[in-house]
Design brief:
Radius of gyration of chain A: 28 Å
Number of strands of chain A: 6
Order of helices and strands of chain A: HHHEHEEEHEEHHHHHHHHH
Helix content of chain B: 25-40%
Strand content of chain A: 5-15%
Number of domains of chain A: 2
Order of helices and strands of chain B: EEEHEHEHHHEHEHEEHH
Largest sheet of chain A: 6 strands, mixed
Structural class of chain B: alpha/beta
Structural class of chain A: alpha/beta
Shape of chain B: globular
Helix content of chain A: 55-70%
Strand order of the largest sheet of chain B: 5-6-7-3-8-9
Largest interface: A-B, 26 and 29 residues
Oligomer: heterodimer
Chain lengths: 369, 245
């Protein structure tokens, strides 16, 4: 035990751990914030909320529309304006609420430009016309719902009777998609900021120079930082998973061993990137720029909050090569698709190899003073 | 054998020649002061002796060995306190000392010894961030002494300290001198420090040695103290250039 305590890797790891937990912000940003995000997004996308659409009624002559609206709507106030509200109840897809606001054509166009309305409706000589941006999916949805409704106002889009079977299986909900994404995103952020920023700060304080003027093994310093980050990431992921399990009933359907291996590979991958990012600069501003330049594209492209299949087809192949995409896809396959060792073998090897290459390159280029 | 041999060393940074053909030899147990104003080239010279910078040309040998081939070996026998090093503020004094002791495979016993030597007993559990300037310098010295170094480099250890803290540090260094096991190379721009602590003083300005010898030899001429000598040699004072006093 005494021999271990005098070991430099043990001492470096222990001190790096103390430095980390003595930052109160670590607890908030590393543990509480991801839980709050998951709860917020989880509740927003799993609650059966009311879909509200704003429709501008432009022009004076609305004879056909008026005859329908007078029967099915009730007078209401929407954002301080007089409106006619048509509520359609639907236990399967959630309730829908159309708010019709009368206005001039010009004022209706302005409302559309401001995003205050989804669609403009006119009625000329009994012919109802819909005006909207055909590339706007929300406007398309309003058009489809509203045109069906006006065609058969009495049926009120009776989806209760339609053959819709709601899928509420675990693994297909948005929260099931989100939690593995948040876990891998947490690993990336924690490692990039925790390792890169620590190195750059110590270099700017000339502490690296002091350390390297001792018989300290240089790789031990970086390995200690990685150990501490992995430990913190395990705790952060467990906290996030615990709350997701408690509130949303999230489950891991795949192999736990495979999950641990992939988690470790992700940590190695991002530690390598972090060391490479921080291998030269001693300015924290420059370091922050580099970290953001690496983190932001992956955060947007790698499908953390929404599927990357929304991006153009030509870009999907490139996106899949990003480390965070490989990590997120692998993690989701274990969480939601019951994946095991074989499925995560390739991403784990790729992430580890990429991390080791970056780590060695970073160490070669490393500026200690 | 000399502890340190500096042979015709040059070092430039872009257009600035920081060290311009300096040579000297230091014997075991000697306390040597490198005296000169800011920008004289003291720190560059010391950092080359510490193996943290490479000379452009010339040779530096520590106990007859060069840094390139014997770095691991030499790191174990030297101790140093760099200018402007800030230890991690979120660690306690004891934790910082144990961290550095770990690099030499040393334990608490040696940590306790250097704590006693540097008078840091009452600050062992204090966070480094809460220490005063003098206490931080004592911590830097304690870290430098952990491995019982045969050669100790101190780069302006008392700069910015109040007179009381400076005297405290001098007292510790005099204890080391009395023990006689350590060779000390100290850079300073305080003539009192060089006069009080050093057996041999090398006066440097603009990367060159202006004069060297023991205090008696240096003051053989008309100068009454090192500051006067420096004025005679350069036409400027040691302290005016520092801006500290």
């Amino acid at each position: 035990m005494k021999k271990l305590k005098n070991n430099q890797l043990y001492r470096l790891t222990y001190c790096a751990f103390l430095e980390t937990i003595r930052e109160p912000e670590v607890l908030f940003w590393g543990m509480i914030f991801p839980v709050l995000i998951s709860i917020g997004l989880g509740l927003a996308f799993t609650q059966n909320s009311v879909s509200k659409f704003q429709v501008m009624l432009a022009g004076e002559q609305q004879t056909k529309l008026d005859s329908v609206l007078v029967v099915h709507t009730i007078p209401n106030k929407v954002s301080g304006k007089d409106a006619l509200t048509w509520k359609i109840q639907d236990q399967t897809l959630g309730d829908t609420e159309f708010n019709f606001i009368r206005n001039s054509w010009d004022a209706s166009i302005i409302a559309l430009k401001r995003g205050e309305a989804d669609l403009i409706l006119t009625d000329s000589m009994g012919i109802v016309r819909y005006y909207f941006d055909p590339y706007n999916s929300q406007a398309q949805l309003v058009y489809m719902k509203l045109s069906a409704l006006l065609k058969s106002p009495g049926q009120t889009v009776a989806t209760n009777e339609a053959s819709i079977s709601p899928l509420t299986l675990k693994g297909v909900r948005y929260i099931d998609f989100l939690i593995p994404g948040l876990i891998v995103f947490g690993v990336m952020s924690s490692v990039l900021w925790g390792v890169s920023y620590t190195i750059i700060e110590k270099r700017s304080q000339k502490l690296l120079r002091r350390l390297v003027a001792t018989p300290m093994k240089k790789s031990n310093f970086l390995i200690a930082l990685m150990f501490v980050r992995i430990l913190m990431n395990v705790v952060e992921a467990l906290v996030l998973f615990f709350f997701a399990w408690l509130i949303f009933g999230i489950q891991i359907q795949g192999n736990i061993g495979a999950l641990l291996v992939l988690f470790l590979a992700g940590n190695i991958g991002f530690t390598g990137i972090a060391v490479l990012i921080s291998c030269r600069t001693s300015k924290t501003e420059v370091g922050t720029g580099w970290i953001n330049a690496v983190q932001m594209p992956m955060m947007i492209l790698s499908g953390i909050f929404f599927s990357y299949h929304n991006f153009p087809e030509w870009s999907i192949g490139i996106i899949k090569m990003l480390p965070l995409t490989a990590f997120a896809d692998g993690m989701r396959s274990i969480f939601n698709e019951g994946a095991g060792w074989m499925e995560i073998l390739m991403p784990s090897i790729a992430l580890s190899a990429f991390g080791i290459i970056c780590f060695i390159t970073g160490l070669k280029l490393f500026k200690w003073y | 054998m000399f502890q340190i041999e500096v042979n015709n060393v040059f070092k430039s940074f872009k257009q600035v020649r920081a060290v311009n053909g300096i040579s000297f030899h230091i014997r075991p147990g000697e306390f040597v002061g490198l005296l000169g104003p800011n920008g004289a080239g003291k720190t560059t010279l010391v950092e080359m002796m510490e193996g943290l910078k490479n000379p452009d040309s010339g040779e530096i040998l520590i106990q007859g060995k060069n840094w390139k081939k014997h770095e691991a070996e030499l790191r174990k026998i030297i101790g140093l306190s760099l200018q402007e090093t800030r230890f991690t503020e979120k660690l306690k004094v004891r934790e910082t000392l144990l961290l550095f002791a770990g690099f030499f495979n040393l334990g608490e016993k040696r940590v306790n010894e250097v704590v006693e030597l540097t008078g840091l007993e009452s600050k062992l559990t204090a966070m480094v961030g809460t220490l005063s300037g003098g206490q931080r310098q004592r911590l830097a010295l304690a870290v430098a002494l952990l491995n019982k170094p045969q050669i100790l480099f101190l780069d302006e250890p008392t700069t910015g300290l109040d007179p009381h803290s400076r005297l405290d540090l001098w007292r510790i260094l005099k204890t080391l001198k009395d023990e006689g096991n350590t060779t000390l190379i100290l850079t300073t721009h305080y003539m009192e420090e060089a006069e009080s602590l050093c057996d041999y003083i090398i006066i440097i300005d603009e990367g060159k040695i202006l004069r060297e010898g023991n205090l008696k030899e240096l003051l053989e001429g008309s100068a009454h103290n090192l500051d006067e000598l420096f004025i005679q040699l350069t036409g400027k004072t040691l302290r005016d250039n520092t801006g500290n006093e």
